[in-house]
User: Fold these one by one.
Assistant:
Number 1:
Amino acid sequence: MTDLVLTYFDFDGGRGEPARLAMHIGNIEFTDKRFPMAEFEEVRKGTPLGQVPTLLVDERQVTQGNAINRYVGKLAGLYPEDAYQALLCDEVMEGIDDLLNSLVRTFGLEGEALKEAREAFVAGPVVRYLAWLEKNLAQSGGEFFADGRLTLADLKVFVLVSSLGGGQLEHIPVDVVDTIAPALSEHHQRIGQTAAITDYYAGR
Amino acid sequence: MTDLVLTYFDFDGGRGEPARLAMHIGNIEFTDKRFPMAEFEEVRKGTPLGQVPTLLVDERQVTQGNAINRYVGKLAGLYPEDAYQALLCDEVMEGIDDLLNSLVRTFGLEGEALKEAREAFVAGPVVRYLAWLEKNLAQSGGEFFADGRLTLADLKVFVLVSSLGGGQLEHIPVDVVDTIAPALSEHHQRIGQTAAITDYYAGR
């Protein structure tokens, strides 16, 4: 039995959350090592590239969020075995990281500078990437992003949409996804009704 | 038979080159659609996210470089089947994209601003990421990055090291990898001796 420790911020979102959800859905035993934001400077010193999430797999500490997502996705049965379906799953996971990179560049700003940066983030990357995701979902049949079933791609989109509409990000209107990409709101609602996800958040 | 068209800049490097190498090594038939840098503004209008490479798989145009690498890597037999070895392969591929993102932010600068940005790029991200890659290679046995054989991770590192030492990037000393990470220079030399890679570049 492989020993798994996932290290990430103590909040229900971001780049670490899809892996947590996948392991809960797949009943994969792991240590959910959470730390408060204030400890990040200390925690990052012990990581390979100064970033989280990391996954300790037995003795080896691995970095890069989507690499981790893909690995636990395979363990949990939530990653396509077919190469072409895996391509579609990967495309979505990696595209979302572009968007998160744009968002991260607004962190640390304050006041008017934050407002301007967030509004530009919404008007530019958010509009573009949500439209792309909607088109992608439609091309894949409208229900799931790959493989005709729940995969890591759906979890990654689910966590993104939760964050954008969660009201925690200043100057991002909570109805942004409803307005720009209603099909993603419906997808979010549908994925959120997965029994293992409902149970998980009910227990947090 | 799947019809594949890879669209990328007409130079032997960057995010499109590992997929080209993989398909040549694996004898995968594809259309190598190259365009000159000056046409990028026009080409990007026809891509899902304004980025290249893209891969047209029959009728569907897919974006995101590592998603494409992974897919053609599977077709070419250059991607680990074992989930843990695939994790190690992915970690390297995705870490390198961080480094490329830092490099891309220096593009378009000129004169003193370019010099400063490139020197900071070398002193910061390059030093950190090459040290990480060296450690990674050592942990995986010293010869290959994953699976004890040639995989996409080796090709991605090979293309990176070719670029850093290629003399095309102003203010990046051509001996930077030799100096900072000699084990990666040796890896580069070894991978470059793969018959299919030697043949490929000899024919270009």
Number 2:
Amino acid sequence: MKTIIGIIGLGLIGGSIGFSLRKFNYNVIGFDFNKKNSDCALKIGIINKIVSFQDLIKISSIIILSIPVDEIIKILNNILNKVNKKQVVFDTGSTKYSICKSIISNKNRGRFVASHPIAGIENSGPQSARYNLFYRKNCIICDKKLSDPDALLTTNKIFNILKMNVSYMESKEHDIYISYVSHLPHVISFVLSRIIFKKFLYNKKKFIKIIGNGLISTTRLSKSSSDTWTPIFLDNRDNLIDTIHLYINFLKSFNNLLLEKNIYKIHKYLKKYNINKIINDINYE
Amino acid sequence: MKTIIGIIGLGLIGGSIGFSLRKFNYNVIGFDFNKKNSDCALKIGIINKIVSFQDLIKISSIIILSIPVDEIIKILNNILNKVNKKQVVFDTGSTKYSICKSIISNKNRGRFVASHPIAGIENSGPQSARYNLFYRKNCIICDKKLSDPDALLTTNKIFNILKMNVSYMESKEHDIYISYVSHLPHVISFVLSRIIFKKFLYNKKKFIKIIGNGLISTTRLSKSSSDTWTPIFLDNRDNLIDTIHLYINFLKSFNNLLLEKNIYKIHKYLKKYNINKIINDINYE
């Protein structure tokens, strides 16, 4: 009998997982709280069948939760209460600590694997799903000691099929790091987008004339779904507030260099201490 | 006789102009203060010939200045003093006000056209030049009333060959707008890059595991050349300091929404007031 995989949430991430697994001949069933999404997912071939939430929990060997992080927290205990010792549940949320904390005393905690495939793009919905979304992207599995070895193995197998680079971290640590490399960039992009909106809303003609690629790439993330990102920002609020504070202080320091007209230090700032240096170092090591 | 076009500065922008104009059979000669750049430019076919600075000024019908803005200001008066009433000079600098101000009393002011082809990418040097860099990108010509009509016409012709969308602005206005849509995004990207550098310099293994596309696109601009961007930031310093201040205030407001856990307002912030709204409006108009 074919393994049945049940995906809850058929947006960009859930949809892309569905596409990939169907290519490998899995039987993929799905449920979305938004009927339009599940209808679209069935139509474009993300899933073999739409089922009810209850049926999905009952008949899936592997249950994948690709819904906003606040919704995961709302339903995860309920799902774990219903699964048996052979079923595996994993999520794809962008924060991990509060999800793991919410099920710490659940008797079936071991059946859950806290996962974060880092593969989001600015587009959302099943219509944006693509089978190669995860190719060679990072995936972090958190608090692996709290998952049963077989559940971990099964989840790993799925991410291997998606061709992801899997590694492990504590959930608390994950949330701190991800606030730097993902949540802060999103905030930066949304806030930049808002300033531009304010400056050019009543002057669109000027905007069309002066816009360039630099702005396009720096505001790319601001196209991301507010339904996905509001819960992420709130869930990782404490880390994110710290990170934004730090970023503001760094901006102030840079502004001070401008006020001082410190050519030497500005030149050094732009040239030396940046991400490309780390990436080069990694490539040479 | 073929029109001779002389390019001073054979990096990304100057080099890409050379490639494009040679495709249209112009005789393109070049000079770069860095001999390595001119040798490379000749070798890869950006220019037909390397000439001395003095010869370039003497024999070119059109002189294009693609060097950092502070260097333009240093040599522009000198160049204009030497040109005749048939020669045209235009620049490609990212700021316009101080360049225009520096030559306001030059007797040959009319031979100069202050231009900003908004087409830079994060890579620099002649080796990054490409003939289609300018395709359908914006180009702003500033203070056009101060240029002789024939000089304006000639410059426009070149930008038309490069397939750019040319429009006009006052130089002061240009520098304010560009501080929002280009200089601020560059600062944001450089500063983000610096934070990530600081956080992960001694923890590169974690960095490799957790990096994703969001960070890559938001820090793309931080790969830009410090030789190009230090003078731009300093030249547009007053506008940029104001813009960074405003950005810091916007970040603080966003942080306040997080502190208040204001789900409704955060959701609205992310969804409504951003650049994509303006772009959609433009597309529907």
